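Subject: sequence -> structure tokens, single chain

Hey, anyone have a minute? Need the predicted structure for the following. Not urgent.
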Amino acid sequence: MSLVISFQEGFSINEGLSKKLQDITKLIFTEEKEAEESSINLRILGNAKIQELNKQFRDKDKTTNVLSFVNDDISIEKTNNIGDIAISYDFVLQEAKEEHKNFDDHLIHMLAHGVYHILGYDHADEAMASIMESKEINILEKLHIKNPYN
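Reply:
Had a minute. Here:
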């Protein structure tokens, strides 16, 4: 399992947070029985860039906290890369402030949310949303992160 983290110029995170992002991804892969050699790319960027991506791929001209892109082409056989996740540092920082959440915990939650999307979970209807949220709550608890939905 690997999580490859890259940054838009001007953004970075400390080693401790980077390790926690690796840890949550590994925990999810283990619980979901994802292949050991699978990988995900994480790009941390700003609001302007995530708005561009949101408009280009979802036809929504607005910022958001996290976007997930499943790799469904033939390259997966060679690269073992199952998808890409983009997280807006700016958006997550603002959201954490507004919701009185710890920034690191909120960023970890957004990554977990994105990974579950790549693994096929969704929140399109109430039943699926409940399953996905339960998985997120349980996995975050393993890193001593409190329920983000309370």
